[in-house]
Amino acid sequence: MVLKAIFQAIIIAIGLSAGQAYACDLLDPFPNTRAALPSFNVLAIGSSSTGGVGAGSKTSAYPQQIAPALKDSQLKPTVVARGIGGEKATGALARLPKAIAEVNPALVIWQVGTNDANARLDPGNVADTIRKGIAIIRAAGADAMLVDPQFYPRIANKPHYTEMAEMIDTVGEELCVPVVDRFEEMRDSGPKVLPSLLARDKFHMSALGHRLLAESIGREVLCGLDAKCPNGLEK
């Protein structure tokens, strides 16, 4: 089954490189999650934020806060985090097939772009990597969600971070994949709120930042399942 899914993903990825697009439903981005309700597995894959850096403890990291954020909705997700600090999109792409086989998720949440922006990688190349990752996720019978980079003061005047975040939004629209716009939410939180969303290094998210990100993810999940989608970090 896993080999078949990987084979299908390779075919889809080849099709994407030839300029083909996904057929998807803007109004129903989570068909596999819906079919699994109320209990479903979630794979959270990404870099240091997904690994819980800045949260103070693993239980305070955003992947572990998703289920509490959804408790009032009667949904019962089991979230498994696979975060590696410093990892770029290509690293997560290489890990996706094995992680999906281990977790058997209905939903994959991919936190991506921060380290690619730090390395000043070309957004177009990162976009191609994300497209291939989405192909692997969908070929395995799972839904996808993207989380774009965090915002922090040192990058306020560095346009390549904004370009990376905008690229992820564009790819999300292209592929009908919901995007949690962490970059914009943190940037627009204001000078009084932003420091509380950041850890002591003023780069990674604090425990509060992790919790609010989990709440944003929860709202996006509910949005995709019932077409109601309030946006933005609570202030």
Text of the CATH class: Alpha Beta
Low-confidence regions: 1-22, 230-235
Order of helices and strands: HHEHHEHEHHEHEHHH
Main sheet: strand order = 2-1-3-4-5
Instruction: Bin the strand percentage.
Output: 5-15%
Protein model, in words:
- This protein has 235 residues and is an alpha/beta fold.
- It has one domain: SGNH hydrolase (Rossmann fold, 3-Layer(aba) Sandwich).
- The chain has eleven helices and five strands, in the order H-H-E-H-H-E-H-E-H-H-E-H-E-H-H-H.
- It has a five-stranded parallel β-sheet, sandwiched between helices.
- Strand 4 (143-147), helix 8 (159-175) and strand 5 form a beta-alpha-beta unit.
- The longest helix has 20 residues, at 207-226.
- The chain is globular and about 45 Å long.
- Residues 1-22 and 230-235 have low confidence and may be disordered.
List keywords for this structure.
235 residues, Rossmann fold, 5-stranded parallel beta sheet, 11 helices
Annotate the secondary structure layout.
Elements: H1 2-17, H2 31-36, E1 39-46, H3 48-51, H4 62-69, E2 76-83, H5 89-103, E3 107-111, H6 114-118, H7 123-139, E4 143-147, H8 159-175, E5 179-180, H9 182-187, H10 194-197, H11 207-226
Parallel strand pairs: 1-2, 1-3, 3-4, 4-5
Helix pairs in contact: 1-7, 4-11, 5-7, 7-8
